[in-house]
Amino acid sequence: MKRHGSGVCHLGGGIMLISRKIITMVAVAMIASGAVAGFGILGLKRVNQGMVEIGEQSMPAVLFVSDLRSTYLSVIPEAYSRVGAETPEAGKDIETRINGITDGLMMKVNSYAAKPEVSDEEKAALREAKVGLIGFTAQIHDVGLLVDEGKTREALNKMRNDFGPLHQGLAKAFDNLVKINTT
Q1: Rg of the chain taking only CA atoms, in angstroms
Q2: Predicted TM-score (pTM) of this structure
């Protein structure tokens, strides 16, 4: 390559001005930057779509299941309070609270299942949770009946023996609902 004072380079017989080389290099750099920016924008668009889906579909369902689980778990100490109530009136007040909580749980499950965007798979999982909640509510009622009959020890044994399997079934149903909405 020979250089001349005029800013011209000779390359194997071809002449290219340094200014043309600079312009070509800047153009190539701009095209490459544009391509990288384009791919970046496409990637961000995909991320945004995923975030919208999570925000509109998955999170409400996960929050719903979380609310169901925490409300259901709040009934268990109430059931123990029912067994340990000092007077029949206090026991009836606790039972009324328990019934209100469990009725509220069933209403939440039914209203959520009635939403048009709920899939068939999710409805099946909601039915499973509902069956578990019905079984749990029946066990709580049976505990109350035993307490009313003065059979406190039997009531505690029923809770100890029957609540575990019911809890495991409900936990599985709740976990299944979360899995359906997060995969």
Answers
A1: 34
A2: 0.66
Confidence of residue 53 (pLDDT cuts 50, 70, 90): confident
Distance (Å, whole) CA 133 – CA 113:
15
Helix axes 120-148, 59-83, angle to 10 degrees: 10
Q: Please give the backbone phi and psi of residue 14, each rounded to the nearest 5 degrees, phi first.
A: -95, 145
User: How far is Cα 12 from Cα 19, in angstroms, rounded to an integer?
Assistant: 18
* Residue 10: CB atoms within 10 Å: 12
Closest listed residue to residue 98, CA positions, set 84, 70, 79? 79
One-letter amino acid identity for 25?
Answer: M
Is the distance from CB of 118 to CB of 112 less than 8 angstroms? yes
CA 181 to chain centroid: 6
- Residue 32: its pLDDT value, please? 92
| Mean model confidence pLDDT for the chain | 84
Are 9 and 3 in contact, with CB atoms under 8 Å apart? yes
